[in-house]
Amino acid sequence: MLDLEPYSARLGGKTGIYPYKIKVDRYLSDLRGYFLEEQIVEEMLSRNENPLIYTVYEISREFEGEFNVGCTIIYPGKIGDEYYFTKGHYHAKEQTSEVYVGLSGEGIILMQNREGRTFAEEIKPKTVVYIPPGFAHRSINTGKTRLVFLAIYPSNSGHDYETIMRTGFTKIVVERDGKPTLIDNPKYRKKL
Ligand code: M6P
Ligand code: ZN
To answer: What do you get for the CA distance between the two ends of the chain, in Å?
Structure first.
């Protein structure tokens, strides 16, 4: 038997969880090619405007059967009409699922499987979202404050970013008449 030790961490504050093990910042330059209005992104980057889109603070674990606990903070903002979001990924190990717990702010989680079956759920405080195996997931901050949520997932699930980078999600979330609205992604392409 492995000799592992329990831990506890505190939720809230600037980092959403503390203490944490890893911090990952994703800037606009890390999301090149992800937003609908690519020319806006390129113009901003050429002006050396490179806003921080989201940060992940994570307590990662080493062994199969353990859970990673990550706190993601998506800052408020838009590129054109499209709200800031996470890259989104499938799990490299397809059989693994994930649980999100909303901590503050408001947003949407898009989930889609490899056949393009798509679901959207709200994420906000006191909300739990279950992501079944085989579903890619992306979170979108549709509010005016930071969207903060906790993610709990198997330590061996891995991240497949490549598929989503290539196909995009079937839907995107844009502001229409001042409200977050789900529309078909004109750039979505079915996996070949
Ligand atoms: C959640 C989890 C993490 C993920 C993070 C950011 O915390 O799902 O595994 O890394 O969100 O999402 P992404 O990796 O898609 O950028
Ligand atoms: Zn995941």
So the answer is: 44
User: What's the 177 CA to ligand 2 centre distance in angstroms?
Assistant: 32
CA distance 155 to 58: 11
The answer, yes or no, to whether any atom of ligand 1 lies below 6 A from the CB of 86, is yes
Question: The tokens of 38 are what?
Answer: 């690519």
pLDDT at 36: 97
DSSP output for 3-27: -------EE-STTSEES-SEEEEEE
Please tell me the predicted confidence (pLDDT) of residue 192.
54
Question: What is the pTM assigned to this prediction?
Answer: 0.97
d(CA 105, CA 102): 8
At residue 1, the pLDDT reads 73
Domain count of the fold of the chain: 1
Identify the domain containing residue 155 by its residue range.
16-184
185 lines ligand 1 (CB under 6 A): no
Per-residue confidence at 10, pLDDT binned at 50, 70, 90? Answer: very high
For ligand 1, whether the C-beta of 88 sits within 6 Å is yes
Across-strand partners of 171? 184
Query: Residue 23 burial by CB count (10 A; 0-12/13-18/19+): exposed, middle or buried?
Result: exposed
Nearest to 82 by CA among 31, 122, 116, 151: 31
Q: Is residue 173 part of a domain?
A: yes
Does residue 191 surpass a pLDDT of 70? no
Q: Residue 83 falls within a domain, yes or no?
A: yes
